[in-house]
Amino acid sequence: MSYSRVTKVAEAKLPTRSGDFRILGFEGELAPDQEPGPQGKRIEEAVALVYGDIASQPSPILRIHSQCLTGDVFHSLRCDCRQQLELALDTIVAHGSGLVIYEEQEGRGIGLMAKLRAYELQDQGLDTIEANVRLGYRSDHRDFSLPAEILRQMGIRSVRLITNNPEKVAALQAHGVQVERLSAEVAPTLNSESYLQVKREKMGHLISSL
Ligand SMILES: Nc1nc2c(ncn2[C@@H]2O[C@H](COP(=O)(O)OP(=O)(O)OP(=O)(O)O)[C@@H](O)[C@H]2O)c(=O)[nH]1
Ligand SMILES: [Zn+2]
């Protein structure tokens, strides 16, 4: 994905349970020659939650987190998103600095309603990838070029990335960012175990504790 402009539109304090962050709002407008993703948006939004003095860090801790309404807001046990977000915030605060880029790629980019339809199919026995394919989507529609551009604008060229997903690492590296991976493994719940198994077996996620 390429953007004709990526703009920081706001910056404010954001005290959280984990600690006192700053929240930066970004808008990325797709370049005219770019087809929008399944959600059809031409302007994509992302926020960066920044803790401490990241500018003095040669390689700040980073989590790129894709929106998951069901997990992040309602603490759904179908997935590990909420636990990973808490892990990231707590790791950053314990370390003294770092950032989370939270992008609106709900359902790995297919959008909330499509993700719920995929959940419906998973309730009937399909796995997370089969459900996407049955609905006419790829397993993952995300493109991490907006977070990469945000990092560039913030002057960050090297990161310690909290993730189990090798494609996220490769995507940032393709944008010229140096990446060291920090594990984002969290304890599986009864409901998330089979989902995590599919992520490991079919999507190559680096998960050892199943
Ligand atoms: N389409 C679809 N999206 C899902 C499903 N479960 C979770 N998601 C979305 O998946 C995204 C998170 O991606 P994950 O594959 O869990 O993890 P990741 O971000 O690739 O990798 P990590 O950095 O290790 O967390 C969020 O946008 C969720 O809304 C599902 O069953 N179907
Ligand atoms: Zn989730």
UniProtKB/TrEMBL annotation:
Stored SUPFAM superfamilies: RibA-like (SSF142695)
Annotated active site: D140, R142
Essential cofactor(s): Zn(2+)
A Pfam family this chain is assigned to: GTP_cyclohydro2
Protein's pathway: Cofactor biosynthesis; riboflavin biosynthesis; 5-amino-6-(D-ribitylamino)uracil from GTP: step 1/4
Key words of the record: GTP-binding, Hydrolase, Metal-binding, Nucleotide-binding, Riboflavin biosynthesis, Zinc
EC category name: hydrolase
Cofactor note: Binds 1 zinc ion per subunit.
Limits of the GTP cyclohydrolase II domain: 8-180
InterPro entries linked: GTP_cyclohydro_II, RibA, RibA-like_sf
Matching CDD domains: GTP_cyclohydro2
Residues the entry annotates as binding GTP: R63, I64, H65, S66, Q67, Q84, E106, G107, R108, T128, T163, K168
Similarity field: Belongs to the GTP cyclohydrolase II family.
Record function comment: Catalyzes the conversion of GTP to 2,5-diamino-6-ribosylamino-4(3H)-pyrimidinone 5'-phosphate (DARP), formate and pyrophosphate.
Name of the protein in its database record: GTP cyclohydrolase-2
Protein source organism: Terriglobus aquaticus
Designated gene of the protein: ribA
